[in-house]
Automatic annotation (TrEMBL):
<dbReference type="InterPro" id="IPR011009">
    <property type="entry name" value="Kinase-like_dom_sf"/>
</dbReference>
<dbReference type="InterPro" id="IPR051035">
    <property type="entry name" value="Mito_inheritance_9"/>
</dbReference>
<protein>
    <recommendedName>
        <fullName>Aminoglycoside phosphotransferase domain-containing protein</fullName>
    </recommendedName>
</protein>
<dbReference type="GO" id="GO:0005739">
    <property type="term" value="C:mitochondrion"/>
</dbReference>
Length: 474
């Protein structure tokens, strides 16, 4: 018998054209609905009997926002994810949650002002959040919760209700990585954090590593459909560790630990419906002049509906980026300095690819390592020689493979866009059946056009929108 609360427990905004059941199982979260009703009523001095409705207002991939309605039409919101109580305890104000940005139909003048108003508030909020100092890096816990877990190191904060404990990010614990006895923090300094991510992955590969095809099936042709041995990734992780102590920014202010939203994007910004109508932009100040504001195409009114929508989406993304950067420069100078450091992207790329779970490839990490050797002086700000040296022929072969893979990625992105698919084959629930049918049709056409039995076998075994076994990659 179906649970009457499944709509609350499950992710319902989208589906995936492959491994749909697995993605939904990952996101399903069962909780005590009646307990939530009771606590919500108690928080405003009411009886649980006064709660007449509890519904899902919005959701992300792994979080929900619920709307709770009482008898007199009083409404409140509760979420699985949001500004943690720590920020309230630290007196860091938040933006009140009422509706999602992007739900409003297009009105260019109004939207422009709304974006400016929201991003000004957002960067001011982010500045206050990032001004909070932490003695180490890791994840934030209630102290009484971490006390229940044996062997978990913790660093007490000034407010004794909270503490810093092990890093809880998914790449640290993904699959069999949860079985490893490795350092997950708290990290005493930035170098410790940079090192721990790679050492975790090294430990995993030495215990569980095996030859794997690239997880991303559109890339397998680049490797002639051959499994890749973990030894190559182990070698690149060891190269990264030789570099890691030199990757910490020389300015100590850029190496301190702070709190920030881990996935700051438009879909995760929720604001009031009523915007500040008194917005103005001063284009004479140095901040505004430091970047060129985006604009819509001059012929926007002559475009058909599809072209117009695409142009407006590009404009909105650029508008958000422009005002986020300019407001960050004005309200959060330290963060602005960090993200505009010429080597920020390369440092981030090295750390990301060294700590991310291996998906049958090592190319992206190796390319980043090669780039680091080429820009070592600028990257480290010193004159010491780079501890890693690549053979010229190895560099040439790596960059040739990278070019082939980049072309494959771009071609696949075109197909994804044509099908209306997002990452991992995601799409809105209402479009799911049509997308599955299109993927099936494309596969049938590809099989019909195949010139040999081997080519047909490759299509059958590696079609990027079929279900697949992910167990070996965990």
């Amino acid at each position: 018998m179906a649970n009457p609360h499944n709509d609350l427990f499950d992710y319902t905004a989208g589906r995936w054209v492959f491994n749909d059941a697995l993605r939904h199982a990952e996101r399903r979260l069962v909780f005590d609905v009646e307990g939530l009703r009771r606590l919500a009523a108690q928080s405003v001095g009411r009886s649980p009997d006064d709660v007449v409705n509890l519904s899902k207002l919005a959701e992300g991939g792994f979080n929900r926002i619920f709307l709770i309605t009482l008898r007199d039409d009083f409404q409140m919101r509760s979420s699985h994810y949001g500004l943690p109580p720590f920020l309230w305890a630290a007196r860091s104000p938040g933006i009140r949650i009422l509706a999602c940005i992007g739900q409003r139909s297009w009105n260019r003048v109004y939207l422009h002002g709304e974006v400016i108003s929201v991003l000004r508030q957002l960067t001011q909020l982010e500045s206050k959040m990032m001004s909070l100092s932490f003695p180490a890096g890791g994840s934030l816990y209630y102290a009484h919760d971490l006390e229940k877990v044996a062997g978990r190191a913790a660093i007490q904060l000034k407010d004794e209700r909270f503490c810093l404990g092990p890093d809880a990010r998914l790449p640290i614990w993904y699959g069999r990585r949860s079985q490893l006895d490795v350092d997950r923090g708290p990290y005493e300094n930035a170098e410790a954090a940079l090192v721990a991510a790679a050492r975790k992955e090294l430990a995993y590969l030495k215990q569980f590593g095996q030859p794997l095809l690239p997880f991303r099936r559109e890339r397998r042709d680049c490797y002639q459909y051959q499994e890749q041995w973990p030894s190559a990734h182990i070698e690149n992780l060891e190269r990264y560790l030789l570099m890691s102590s030199s990757l910490v920014p020389r300015d100590p202010a850029l190496g301190h630990f702070c709190i920030r939203h881990p996935d700051l994007q438009q879909g995760n910004i929720v604001v009031r419906r009523s915007s500040d109508s008194g917005w103005q932009v001063n284009h004479d100040d140095p901040v505004s002049q430091s970047m060129t504001p985006p604009s819509l195409p001059e012929n926007i009114d002559d475009l058909d509906e599809t072209e117009r929508t695409a142009a407006e989406e590009v404009y909105l993304r650029r508008l958000v980026h422009y005002h986020y950067v300019t407001n960050t420069k004005e309200y959060n100078k330290l963060h602005y300095d960090a993200m505009t450091d010429p080597m920020c992207v390369l440092r981030s790329r090295l750390y990301y690819h060294a700590g991310n779970p291996r998906e049958g490839e090592t190319l992206e990490l190796k390319v980043a390592l090669i780039r680091a050797t080429e820009r070592w002086g600028t990257l480290t700000g010193g004159s010491a020689p780079c501890p890693v040296v690549f053979d010229a022929e190895d560099v040439r072969e790596t960059m040739e493979l990278n070019e082939v893979q980049t072309k494959a990625d771009k071609a696949f992105e075109v197909w994804q866009n044509m099908l209306g698919l997002g990452p991992e084959g995601w799409m809105p629930t209402q479009d799911y059946e049509e997308a599955v049918a299109l993927c099936k049709q494309m596969k049938e056409e590809a099989l019909a056009e195949a010139k040999s039995a081997d080519e047909r076998a490759e299509i059958m075994a590696h079609w990027p929108w079929d279900d697949m076994d992910e167990g070996k990659y965990m």
